[in-house]
Amino acid sequence: MTSTKASVAGRTASPSTARAINDRLALHLLKDKGPLTAGELKSLTGLSRPTIADLVERLRQTGLVAVVGESGAERRGPNARVYGLVADSAHVAGVDVRTDGVAVCVADLLGRTVAEESLPVAPDVDPAHTAAAVVALVERAAERAGAAPLHRIGIGMPGLIDPATGELNSPGGLPSWHRELATALHGGLAAPVLLENEVNLAAVAEQRLGAVRDRDTFVLLWLGHGIGAAVVLDRVLRRGASGGTGEIGFLPVPGTVGLPSATGCDGGFHSLVGSAAVCELAQQHGLEAAAGGLHGGGAEGSGAAEAVIRAALEAGERGETFLDALAARIALGVAAICAVLDPGCAVLGGEVGRAGGEGLARRVEEHVARLSPLRTWVRAGVVGGGGVLRGAVLTALDATQNELFGAP
What we know:
This protein is an alpha/beta fold. The protein contains twelve helices and 15 strands.
């Protein structure tokens, strides 16, 4: 008889528990390392050949695993079957919610994108109509991909997400349809919904796909129209008691004309590095980028700030002094985070961080070194404008795989 004993927390597991552990291990190996033969699974798991044979047959019956080919065609004898995850056995959707639009990505069980859609949203549209339009958008993307029904939906949006309830818990300032969207998607598509702050999702994407794949602990600064940070300690995303970890826009810093308040961050770090402040600083240094929507610093959108950063990188000496002044401002926030958390690494994300690239990151790192005795590397985010959407997909995918594979 095949042995299925395994040790769990120092005890011998029951046969059913051992099978569940072995199945989960095999499924994760197939996900991470691609299609494998039974022999390769045996080598990677240390399980016996009969146990692997039982395991493979059991997983095939669930519909999660199938024969996807053969190996050994170059040698004599029977070829070995190659087993892989059935990618279309489950699908998830990621939704990136902004104040002026929504982007959707549908992915299969292996995380491969199978459909994308987007929808601009006018500020004066009825909230209920907007929520219904977004539900229809996600439904259309799923149908295009042949992915209906969806297994899970991950949503990224600005604002505080209550860790206890998973609900949007932000005060005013955001469109009212944001509050209705999660409920509308869950009700309209009958799929569990995971709501997460957009900056947190960008950090998930950077750790899994981008600039900090080699780091277990880091912070991500989101530099755009809004200012925020995500904190990852020992590979765990930290949200805080109310979901407010990383609300660095409210951080009191030198160089502002006032102090932040409970109802506004105008006197805080936001006043130094938000898009409007970046454009104003550019004007002080004589930079213009009319092609990007900025002329004399008058525009305040994140697109204008991004344009002026790119212009500065091409402007020679004037651009150098502006970038150094901006880096000195950004370093104030990074140094404050380092003094409390000592993350060892900070990633510059958002439109400004992405536009500044490694040149801006290097300048910030040099300024932080002058402000703090704690060695901190500063890197430019590389995931790009789709980071929030990709993080939403990854979050939904993780939860789905834990459900289907068995949570550890």
